[in-house]
Amino acid sequence: MNYDIVIIGGGMAGASLALALKDLPLSIALVEAVPFESAAQPAFDARAIALAAGSQRILRTMGVWEAMAARGVTAIEHIHVSERGGFGSTHLEAVEESVVALGYVVEGRVIGATLTAALAQCANVELLCPAELTTVQVEEGGVAVQMLHEGTPRSLRARLLVAADGGRSTVREQIGARTWELGYGQTAVIATVTTDRPHGNTAYERFTDTGPLALLPCDPPRDGDPNLRGRRWSLVWTARDGQVDELLALSDAEFLQHLQQRFGYRAGRFVRTSERHAYPLVLRFVREAASARVAFIGNAAHAIHPVAGQGFNLGLRDVAALAQVIAGVVARGEDIGSQAALKDYAAWRRPDYLRTAAFTDGLIRTYSNTLPPLKLVRNLGLLALDTLPPMKHLLARQSMGLNGHLPRLACGLPLRQGIRK
């Protein structure tokens, strides 16, 4: 079967790309291993995703934000940044940036339900699920893909293959794409917690000696427990690798007690927690975001530390940039899998990767040093930042995903054929 584009991976990045391309005269196959409605589907589970303001623009311009918001999202109107045991803090405010919200928190299953419903309306997208990729062969005029679709061998051909198959990308391994990787010796412990007082749409980023601890306001979806609305948070607790087993083994009461000691009482008293999950942290990038006939997006292209919640937002900008490059190539009547087109995409994405990696990795390195003089300097810096509007504005723009050369979708503008970038 021949297609213009085969997307391997139907999670958030892959599904978003298919939707972004829905109005172009292209045939698209979206290949996903796990059925979307399955409890084993990792991309669309109950974990909370932080969506930057720029990502909200992309989803709105794609025509899916209203449906997503109707299912339940939580606005972030205030961000409080501090260091445990320190005196300094910085506050970011949506009103100061002239935006409704600095970002939003959305459960993965809400994103999944919204994208799945929208995909069902796309006439040019064929969903192949469950389907497992077996081999990829890059040829001069296209890509040959071998897969098992519902247990039956199937062959596909395409002019362009997009790898959106996550951190353990099979496509990346099949074509031998080189990566750069750095471990942190840290693991993120994820849970949903409830406090005894309202969150007030405030997000907290608190740096500790074992890594950052983030609390994001995360109300339950519309079909969830209404009694938790306004008091529910998504917790990302960064711990050293050697501490994780102990944290996971604690009873709920013990876990909440430890959390209270680490975080303090700014958000109130922690009274309830969900099941906990652990995710090892790493900094990883493919050396080239595209090669012959193959482009990488989302976690297949990069993995960064969850500090400041930039991961999925970086992937969504991949989607918007690649969609715009493809739209321009289609308008000029050129080959969408050509080296020139993919070189444009890779060159466009590189500065954003470097800037975001420097931002997140720099925060971790800066706050990992426990020397008292450096801690004093950090806290003085937080105080100074809070009194310097231009610097706060730059920090807010980076957090909102609004720095650098933005794709049209991130500017609230629809794709327009004839535009290279």
Number of structurally distinct domains? 1
CATH H level: which superfamily? FAD/NAD(P)-binding domain
In helices, the fraction of residues equals 25-40%
Structural class: alpha+beta
Mean pLDDT figure: 93
Instruction: Give the number of DSSP strands.
Output: 20
Instruction: Based on Cα principal axes, name the global outline.
Output: globular
CATH C-level name? Alpha Beta
CATH topology: FAD/NAD(P)-binding domain
CATH architecture: 3-Layer(bba) Sandwich
What does this structure look like?
This protein is an alpha+beta fold. The protein has one domain (2-181, 282-410): FAD/NAD(P)-binding domain (3-Layer(bba) Sandwich). It is 33% helix and 30% strand. It has helices spanning 12-20, 53-61, 65-72, 108-119, 170-175, 244-249, 252-263, 311-331, 339-368, 372-386, 389-399; strands at residues 2-8, 28-31, 48-52, 74-76, 78-83, 89-93, 103-107, 125-128, 131-138, 143-149, 152-163, 179-195, 202-208, 211-217, 232-240, 270-273, 277-286, 290-291, 294-296, 302-303. Strands 5, 6, 12, 13, 14, 15, 16, 17 and 20 form a nine-stranded mixed sheet that branches.
Helix and strand arrangement:
Blueprint: E1 2-8, H1 12-20, E2 28-31, E3 48-52, H2 53-61, H3 65-72, E4 74-76, E5 78-83, E6 89-93, E7 103-107, H4 108-119, E8 125-128, E9 131-138, E10 143-149, E11 152-163, H5 170-175, E12 179-195, E13 202-208, E14 211-217, E15 232-240, H6 244-249, H7 252-263, E16 270-273, E17 277-286, E18 290-291, E19 294-296, E20 302-303, H8 311-331, H9 339-368, H10 372-386, H11 389-399
Parallel strand pairs: 1-2, 1-11, 2-8, 5-13, 11-19
Antiparallel strand pairs: 3-7, 4-7, 5-6, 9-10, 10-11, 12-15, 12-16, 12-17, 13-14, 14-15, 17-20, 18-19
Helix pairs in contact: 1-4, 1-8, 3-4, 8-9
